Amino acid sequence: MTAASPYSFAPDGHGTKELHLVAVENFESWLETQSRRVRTWIGATGFAAKLGDIALVPDPDGGLVSAVIGHGTARDRQRDRFLLGGCRRALPAARYKLHHALAPDALAEECLGWLLAGYSFRAGAPSPRPDIAELVVPDGADTAQLQILAAAEVFTRDLINTPAAALGPEELESAAMALATRFGADMSVTYGDDLLYQNLPLIHAVGRASDRAPRLLDMRWGQTGPKLTLVGKGVCFDTGGLNLKPGASMGLMKKDMGGAATVLGLAQMIMATGWPVQLRVLIPAVENAVSGSAMRPGDVLTSRKGLTIEVNNTDAEGRLVLADALALACEEQPDALICMATLTGAARVALGPDIAPFYTHDDGFAQRLMAASARMRDPLWQMPLYPGYQTMIEPGIADLDNAPSGGMAGSITAALFLERFVTDGTRFAHFDIYGYQPKPAPGRPKGGAAQGARALFAALPDVLGL
């Protein structure tokens, strides 16, 4: 028994089993609605609806007739998400019809977690299609949208999880091109030394040391409606450059293109849903390598916008490539500009791996994002673009410093740096994401993860007036 995809819902049919999701507070009332035989069996198993508990109910011949999953207490459900998905692989591989007492948002969360729990990744080969439990199209759920969200998350996860040897700037371009082709989008690419001729000098400076040519990917979709531009950091591997990272810090640097992977996933959601927008996706795709042509600490670079930057640490390269892309984006005066990047370790120190900080001066946008974050169970937190720290990024020898000394407020100063390349009055938000799940959790295996994309997908239609 296998579905067409572990990330889709199954049709109802012969052999479907019942799947009951029961919270502690509803356990006794649920039990009263069951047959005497089921009540006796549940009592014999000791099932009490504790979080993650599973009771398999047999028919008189010993075959499976239904399963019951404990949904825990309200406190349990507040502390984690996608709890139904956490039980998917523990269930026998059968087709199930969900019985529940969930509100619409909670149902959407649990169904999405179920789909995402089907994810697996194996380097160098297509991910094996697991023989795991399937869920029949749930009553009351927007299954088409849930499958769009799941497919986009899978796309993002696959890109982040692919080792850097198999996913450099060229392969990231190919993935973006395939997405563009699938949805009828246009894409242009500026390569290598042409970046200099097209006035994208910072992207060139960061990527020139690698034998994998740097490039800017520019994808466009939609002819009418508000202009929405997504910019994603596409550093396909980050050695730190001449300020070489220690080995322990370099081990996860295949994920340094997580911003690019996430905006591509968000773009996939938007195009699959058919939003009436003029969508543009800009990805500076580079490898920060070490060679005789690498940029040096102390170099002063001139950006597309004309601002000069003193390079005080070649490992603060992400903000450099994003600076040129943001300046380019603003030349078309977008109605909303989103930047996503695995930018600073400081963000992880402040908020840990689960919560992505974002920065914006638009209070209305921030409020909508926080509301969408809670509704979509996609954790975000607004951080301040504190003007008092502006002097920290002003070195004197140049307009800007890419790596202020002292190590304090690192995520904020990075956001302030990026803001200098955004035209005043532009509705702008920057997300300093981690892009990785450090240990397995319900619906989230260890590895690449999208952050902020679902919250943006829920908030942007209101922001853009769609």
TrEMBL record:
Its EC number is 3.4.11.1. One of its GO terms (cellular component) is cytoplasm. The keyword Hydrolase applies. One of its GO terms (biological process) is proteolysis. It is an enzyme of class 3 (hydrolase). GO terms for molecular function: manganese ion binding; metalloaminopeptidase activity. Pfam families: Peptidase_M17, Peptidase_M17_N_1. Keywords: Aminopeptidase, Hydrolase, Manganese, Protease. Residues 313-320 form the Cytosol aminopeptidase domain. Belongs to the peptidase M17 family. This is Leucyl aminopeptidase. It comes from Roseibaca calidilacus. The gene is pepA-2.
